[in-house]
Amino acid sequence: MSEFQGQVAVVTGAAGNIGTALCHKLAAAGAGVALLDRDTDRLARVIDALPAGSTTAPFGVNLFDQRSVDESIAAVRTRFGRLDILANVAGGFSMGPALEDTDDATWNLMLDLNARSVFHTARAVLPMMRSAGYGRIINVAARAALKGQGHMGPYCAAKAAVISLTESMAAETRDLDINVNCILPGTVDTPENRAAMPDADHDAWVPPAALADVMLFLASKGARCISGAAVPVYGRS
Length: 237
Known about the structure:
Blueprint: E1 8-12, H1 17-28, E2 32-37, H2 40-48, E3 56-60, H3 66-80, E4 85-88, H4 104-132, E5 135-140, H5 153-172, E6 178-185, H6 191-196, H7 208-218, E7 230-233
Helix pairs in contact: 1-7, 3-4, 4-5
């Protein structure tokens, strides 16, 4: 029997490329999966494609709104009775102009998508994990979090915030059986990235399934002594 049998995982951004891959891995490993996303139509299609017999449920959510997040997490608890794993996969990227030409809307969107979403969901689930005496939180940062790049200032800052939030949560839960880590993907092999960079070496990019494998490991007993880490998953990108 898989160690994930009977556990419940919340995956944000579950309708996206990485989120979908992780939901497949978790469901195949026997975990119950609560799929959170704003696109409920896509969530239904993701669930239809999961392994037969999977224990899953979709939850529409606005990750920018703490009340919406709290309501979704409460609904997860009502549906499943527990919550063991939180995977903060939701996020987004856009190139922009030079920083002095960047408007507030672009800045706010990158911070909301990539950092505020992590803050809101972590704030909702950590009391439950503390009460249960167990939890695993895996956030998705990015290689760009480690070094600012031109025309990517808001995105780099937001992903750097994810690393800092991960480290802060790990420090606050170090005496509990709650581990908090993040991954740093390189260039991910998605249809969107292929369309944007058709001449690149796509074989060097990181498949979403490979990122899901690392996240599944960080949720496992094998990673029980790892907390506060930012794990590079670059492939050859």
